C-alpha cells in the first residue's frame, strides 16, 4: 500500500533551522547517523513506469531488491529542460537552470566568445569583437576533438580523454580574455564541492570528460578527486579493449579507423553497454578501495557513482544493422525488427530495451555484490534515479518534423542566434526586440497548419517567472517551444525518441534510496516504502550530504532555491 513516511528528525529540518546550525566548514547534522559512502547511479532514460514493467517481467531482480528494502518515490520530476547537462547538474548541485546557468549541453551566452579552436586558422581570440557565442560543453571539448572551423578529423578515444583549453569558450574577466572551464561555467557549487572541502574523497564517471569537470562546482575544479574520463561519442571504437579492471570489453559494431560516417557507440545497444561496462568496472575498483584506474589504493570515496547510457539508447535507437528501413534492406536486416524502446499498443519493452534494462540491472547487482564482499554494503547508501526520461513512450505519438519551429520563426523575418532542439526548442534571438514577432509566428502556426506541432511557447513574463529574464541573464533563452508530446525536432532516421522537454515522458523518472544495511538484513524489517509526495531529482544533492553527516545548507541551491532533503530519507 502506498503511503507517506513520517519524516525523520533530519528531514524535518527546515531551511531556517539549517541556517541556525550552519558554521564554518562541514557540519554534522544532529541525530543523523552518517553513512561512510553514497553510491549515486543515474540510469539515463529510466522512467518510473519502466521500473514497474521490468519488475513485472522479472527483468530487474536487483532493482526489485532495492525497492523492497528501500524507499522509492512515485512522483519524481527531473530538471527542466530535461537534458543531460541540467539533469546531472540538478542531481549533484540541487540547482535549477535559474541558479546554475546550465540550460543544455549546447546553448548560448550573449556575453561570451567563441573558442579559439573554432575560429579560422591564424585568428586570435582576444574578446575584442562583438560578444555572443554558442556554448558547447560535450565531446567537442575533448583534447582530440576536431575543429569545426579548420575541418580537422577527430581521434577521440573511449578512455583517458581530457579537455583541450583551445576548445573552451572565452569570457572577458577583469579586462582579460580567459577560458571558461566547465565547472566555472556552472554558477553554483556542488555536493562534491562540499564533501571535498570537508576532507572527504569523491569520484564520478560520466559520459563526457566535460561533465566530470562540471560537477566539481564553480571555483573548485578538483572537487571530484577521481574523474573517470570516458567519452561516449568517441571517434575510434576498437573491436575490443582491456579496461581498468583487466577485463576485455568487446564492441559488436566497431569503428577502428574513426570514420566520420560512423558507426558510433550509440548506434548499437551492445556497443553502448560495452561502454557502460567500462565505467562499471571503474566503480568496482573504487569499491575495492582503488582509484578508478585500478592502479593505486586510495580508499573508497565518500561520494561516487556513474551514469548508464544503455537504457536511453535502447529507448530511442533505430539499429543501423537490424532495421531494414535504416539499412536500406541490407543483408542481415530483420523485417520484424521494431525500433526504439516500446512495442506498439502494449507499450511493453522491445527486445532492444529489455536487453538494455537487464544489462543495467546485472551491473547494479555486481556493485551490490562487491560492496557486500568488501564489507561496505552496510555503510553505503545507494541511490538509483535518472537525469532524464525519454519521449514518446507510445510510438504512435511519434512525429518527426525536422526543425519546423526554427523555420516558422525565420520565415517571419526573425534572425536566430542559436536554436537548440530535441523534443524541446530553446531559441536565442539576435535581436531580442523581435521576441513578440517570433512568438506570434509560432502561435499563428499553431492555430493553422501547426507544422511545428507547438503545444505552448514560454516567453516574456512567464519565462522570467520560471527562469531568469533573458533581458537580464545572458544565458536564458528568449523563448522556449514545448511541442505536442511525441514531437521531435529532427529529420534523423536514427532515433524514435528524445529528451530535453517538459512533458511527462521526459521528466517522470524513477528514484530509489536504499540504506545498504537493509540489504544485509541488519537494519530491521523496514523498506519497501513508497513516498507519493511530489519531489525533484534536485533533492538528491542535499540528501547525499545529509547521508554523510554534512550540512546541506552548504549548498548554494539549498540556501538560494530552498532545495530540500528528500522526504522519508532515513540515512
Q: What do these coordinates show?
A:
- The protein is of the alpha/beta class and 571 residues long.
- It folds into two domains: 15-102 and 184-395 and 507-561, Alkaline Phosphatase, subunit A, CATH 3.40.720.10; 399-488.
- Helices cover 27% and strands 15% of the residues.
- The protein is built from 18 helices and 22 strands.
- It has helices spanning 15-21, 48-56, 61-69, 84-93, 97-100, 182-185, 191-197, 209-214, 269-287, 310-316, 351-373, 404-411, 435-447, 460-466, 504-507, 516-519, 540-547, 556-561, and strands spanning 37-43, 71-73, 76-77, 106-109, 133-136, 170-173, 176-179, 203-204, 226-227, 240-242, 248-250, 303-308, 380-385, 399-400, 416-421, 425-429, 454-458, 479-483, 487-488, 512-515, 529-531, 535-536.
- Strands 12-1-13-20-2-21 form a six-stranded mixed β-sheet, with helices on both faces. It has a four-stranded antiparallel β-sheet with strand order 15-16-18-17.
- α10 (310-316) packs antiparallel against α11 (351-373) and α12 crosses α13.
- The relative contact order is 0.20.
Topology:
Layout: H1 15-21, E1 37-43, H2 48-56, H3 61-69, E2 71-73, E3 76-77, H4 84-93, H5 97-100, E4 106-109, E5 133-136, E6 170-173, E7 176-179, H6 182-185, H7 191-197, E8 203-204, H8 209-214, E9 226-227, E10 240-242, E11 248-250, H9 269-287, E12 303-308, H10 310-316, H11 351-373, E13 380-385, E14 399-400, H12 404-411, E15 416-421, E16 425-429, H13 435-447, E17 454-458, H14 460-466, E18 479-483, E19 487-488, H15 504-507, E20 512-515, H16 516-519, E21 529-531, E22 535-536, H17 540-547, H18 556-561
Parallel strand pairs: 1-12, 1-13, 2-21, 3-22, 8-9, 14-19
Antiparallel strand pairs: 2-20, 4-5, 6-7, 10-11, 13-20, 15-16, 16-18, 17-18
Helix pairs in contact: 9-10, 9-11, 10-11, 12-13
Amino acid at each position: 500500500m502506498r503511503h507517506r513516511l513520517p519524516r525523520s528528525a533530519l528531514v524535518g529540518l527546515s531551511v531556517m533551522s539549517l541556517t541556525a546550525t550552519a558554521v564554518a566548514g562541514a557540519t554534522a547534522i544532529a541525530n543523523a547517523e552518517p553513512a561512510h559512502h553514497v553510491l549515486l547511479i543515474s540510469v539515463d532514460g529510466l522512467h518510473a513506469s519502466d521500473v514497474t514493467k521490468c519488475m513485472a517481467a522479472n527483468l530487474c531482480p536487483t532493482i526489485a531488491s532495492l525497492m523492497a528494502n528501500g524507499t522509492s518515490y512515485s512522483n519524481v520530476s527531473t530538471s527542466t529542460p530535461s537534458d543531460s547537462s541540467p539533469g546531472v547538474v540538478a542531481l549533484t548541485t540541487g540547482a535549477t537552470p535559474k541558479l546554475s546557468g546550465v540550460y543544455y549541453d549546447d546553448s548560448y551566452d550573449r556575453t561570451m566568445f567563441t573558442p579559439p579552436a573554432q575560429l579560422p586558422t591564424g585568428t586570435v581570440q582576444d574578446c575584442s569583437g562583438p560578444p555572443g557565442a554558442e556554448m558547447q560543453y560535450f565531446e567537442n571539448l575533448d583534447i582530440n576533438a576536431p575543429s569545426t572551423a579548420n575541418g580537422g578529423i577527430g581521434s577521440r578515444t573511449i578512455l583517458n580523454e581530457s579537455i583541450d583549453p583551445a576548445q573552451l569558450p572565452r569570457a572577458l574577466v577583469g579586462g582579460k580574455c580567459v577560458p571558461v572551464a566547465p565547472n566555472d561555467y556552472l554558477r553554483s557549487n556542488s555536493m562534491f564541492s562540499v564533501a571535498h572541502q570537508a576532507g572527504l574523497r569523491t569520484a564520478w564517471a560520466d559520459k563526457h570528460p566535460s561533465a566530470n569537470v562540471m560537477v566539481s562546482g564553480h571555483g573548485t575544479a578538483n572537487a571530484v578527486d577521481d574523474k573517470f574520463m570516458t567519452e561516449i561519442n568517441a571517434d575510434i571504437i576498437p573491436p575490443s579493449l582491456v579496461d581498468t579492471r583487466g577485463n576485455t570489453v568487446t564492441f559488436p559494431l566497431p569503428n577502428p579507423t574513426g570514420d566520420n560516417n560512423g558507426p558510433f557507440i550509440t548506434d548499437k545497444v551492445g556497443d553502448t553497454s560495452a561502454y557502460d561496462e567500462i565505467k562499471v568496472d571503474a566503480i568496482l575498483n573504487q569499491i575495492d578501495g582503488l582509484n578508478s584506474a585500478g592502479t593505486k589504493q586510495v580508499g573508497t570515496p565518500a561520494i561516487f557513482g556513474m551514469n548508464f547510457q544503455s537504457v536511453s539508447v535502447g529507448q530511442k535507437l533505430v539499429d543501423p544493422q537490424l532495421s531494414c528501413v535504416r539499412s536500406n534492406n541490407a543483408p542481415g536486416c530483420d523485417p520484424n525488427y521494431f525500433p526504439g524502446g516500446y512495442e506498439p499498443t502494449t507499450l511493453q519493452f522491445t527486445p532492444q530495451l529489455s536487453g538494455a534494462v537487464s544489462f543495467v540491472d546485472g551491473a547494479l547487482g555486481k556493485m551490490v555484490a562487491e560492496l557486500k564482499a568488501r564489507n561496505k554494503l552496510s555503510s553505503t547508501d545507494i541511490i538509483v534515479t535518472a537525469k532524464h526520461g525519454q519521449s514518446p513512450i507510445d510510438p504512435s505519438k511519434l512525429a518527426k518534423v525536422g526543425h519546423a519551429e526554427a523555420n516558422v520563426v525565420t520565415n517571419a523575418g526573425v534572425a536566430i542566434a542559436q536554436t537548440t532542439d530535441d523534443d524541446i526548442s530553446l531559441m536565442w534571438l539576435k535581436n531580442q526586440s523581435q521576441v513578440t514577432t517570433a512568438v506570434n509566428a509560432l502561435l499563428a502556426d499553431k492555430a493553422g497548419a501547426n507544422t511545428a506541432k507547438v503545444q505552448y511557447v514560454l516567453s516574456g513574463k512567464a519565462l522570467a517567472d520560471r527562469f531568469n529574464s533573458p533581458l537580464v541573464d545572458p544565458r536564458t533563452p528568449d523563448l522556449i517551444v514545448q511541442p505536442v508530446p511525441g514531437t521531435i525536432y529532427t529529420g534523423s532516421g536514427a532515433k524514435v525518441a528524445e529528451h530535453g522537454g517538459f512533458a511527462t515522458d521526459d521528466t517522470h523518472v524513477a528514484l530509489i534510496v536504499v540504506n545498504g544495511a537493509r540489504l544485509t538484513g541488519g537494519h530491521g524489517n523496514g523498506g519497501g516504502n513508497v513516498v507519493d509526495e511530489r519531489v525533484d531529482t534536485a533533492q538528491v544533492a542535499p540528501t547525499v550530504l545529509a547521508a554523510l553527516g554534512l550540512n546541506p545548507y552548504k549548498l548554494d541551491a539549498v540556501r538560494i532555491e530552498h532545495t530540500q532533503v528528500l522526504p522519508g530519507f532515513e540515512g
